[in-house]
Amino acid sequence: MEKMEDVVVIGGGPAGAASALWLHQLGLRVMLLEAGPAVGGLQLRSPYSNVWIPGLLGKSGQEVAGLLQEQLRAASVPHIPGFRVTSFRRVDASTAWEVSNGSRTFRARYVVIATGSKPRSAGFVESDCVAIGPGISMERVSVEGRRVAILGGGDNAFDQAGSVLRRGAASVDIYCRRRPSAQPLLQRLVPARHVHVGPFDADQTHMTVNGIPYDVLGVQFGFDACIPGGLEVPLRAGCIDVDQHGAIPSLPRIYAAGEVTNYWHPCVTTSFAHGIQVAKSIQLNLLAEAAESASEIAQEAVVEC
Ligand SMILES: Cc1cc2nc3c(=O)[nH]c(=O)nc-3n(C[C@H](O)[C@H](O)[C@H](O)COP(=O)(O)OP(=O)(O)OC[C@H]3O[C@@H](n4cnc5c(N)ncnc54)[C@H](O)[C@@H]3O)c2cc1C
């Protein structure tokens, strides 16, 4: 068993990294646990140059992840990559939680869940001709001169279809069960005759959709929040339901931040902000608890006198 931390942060994407950085710089004992090989979260999947994150124009998602790694190292924020939290247990309602990967356990007064989300696979398996989710999964598949089918009708489906056409695909068809929900700007990237709305049957083994053969399938069915096991958390629309401080009112001393929550529009900037808000809320709670116990000690001293 490790020493007691003030806070364990689970997940090293933008939300968890921002939270851990602030908690550490606010003088608290923090440990950041990341399942993947490096900090950065979904930004590690993005080779694209960003136009959305204020102040980081032109940096790719992977570069943004690299900057986060560099900043955590420079500030000496304790963090462990390759640590997937698999269980979560309340030791004592008022004092501690235990978080473990099965072989190593951390105990902390507060826990921040910042486990983000992952692309839905819907039973498909990534291969050299099947991509799941946007970004590097699509980019590593060769599309030049090939027939591509994209499954899904949201922003990512149309955005990735546009990217596949720019990369020289012979054709791209979009299959979506309902009317596409992508922004009109993105829908214009694909000619209407290549957008098929209604039930469809996609078969990875034979690489067909509704019996039509394709060279590449791109599965773009959106994302699911990653909820760590061992804990009953309240959900809203599949995400952890938090209050305006990032707290989960039914679970004392547990907070959640970023894309795993229902709170804000998911992007890097809101994830940073949410992680920071949670860090400040926890610091204020700890200060209030310290003040309360100091006043209890002072009262006991007065009684003894
Ligand atoms: C291809 C692509 C391009 C994008 N481009 C942009 C852009 O240009 N601008 C922008 O603002 N946003 C962009 N986004 C969205 C942005 O990356 C996300 O909104 C943001 O990363 C969410 O941050 P997060 O920290 O909440 O979650 P994530 O980034 O999902 O991080 C969660 C982390 O938790 C870890 N984790 C999960 N479960 C566990 C566990 N049990 N134990 C330990 N660790 C765990 C995961 O490994 C992951 O590292 C893009 C996303 C993609 C996929």
UniProtKB/TrEMBL annotation:
The organism of origin for this protein: Paraburkholderia megapolitana
GO molecular function terms attached to this record: oxidoreductase activity
Keywords of the record: Flavoprotein, Oxidoreductase
Alphabetical list of Pfam families matching this protein: Pyr_redox_2
Sequence ranges assigned to domain FAD/NAD(P)-binding in this UniProt record: 6-263
The name this protein goes by in its record: Thioredoxin reductase
Keyword Oxidoreductase attached: yes
